[in-house]
Amino acid sequence: MVLNWIDQAPRRVLALISVACVAMLAFGMYLQHVVGLEPCPMCIVQRYALIGVAIFTGLASARGSKGWWMSFAALALLAAGFGAFVAARQSWLQWYPPEVATCGRDFYGMIENYPIGRAIPMIFRGSGDCTAIDWTFLGGSIANWSFLCFMGFGLVLLALLARAGRSKKGGRAALA
User: What are 136's strand-pairing partners?
Assistant: First the structure.
């Protein structure tokens, strides 16, 4: 059933992935600004990967040309793979924390010890501890859930690209 939907409406699938990414980013902002969780540098990198997946899938869903959406879906697949790698690494660090965690500095320490030109880029790198588990849902940390979401996006994108490539070789035109 899911594969039929991928075959019949690939642009809708891409738009749905883009909306899911935006929803995940909004939830991350909620956790940061309302709940008060500080993102670590690896969390920030995962956000960038999520933004990449959202932008690439959004662009892929914008036009009906098969070459267009397949190109941007491939870029989204790369961004999802990168995000899954970072989330897997953070999950590993949470399960097997190193003795000395050097994941970031605190905000005030950066402002006091560095000129503003160096401190501003450091602020956007995050300041939380990558090994800390501050929030869980059904036993999984944010990094664990992020990994699962990136893998889900990647699998759907891979299936979409494989099915579209197969229909091209088989002589059938994929529906946009």
Answer: 141
How many CB atoms lie under 10 A from the CB of residue 94? 18
pTM of the model: 0.71
pLDDT in tens, 112-171: 666 766 655 655 555 556 666 676 668 677 788 888 989 999 998 998 888 776 665 544
Quick one: which of 6, 35, 24 has its CA closest to 148?
Answer: 24
What are the distances in angstroms from CA 28 to CA 2, 70, 128? 28, 28, 14
Report the greatest alpha carbon distance in the chain: 65
Q: List all residues 6 or more positions away from 109 whose beta carbon is below 8 Å from its beta carbon.
A: none
The amino acid occupying position 118 is: R
C-alpha pair distances (Å), 157 with each of 52, 92, 108, 110: 14, 25, 42, 40
Q: How far is CA 145 from CA 26, 99, 139, in A?
A: 15, 25, 10
Query: Which DSSP symbol is given to 33?
Result: I
Separation CA 35–CA 121 (nearest Å): 24
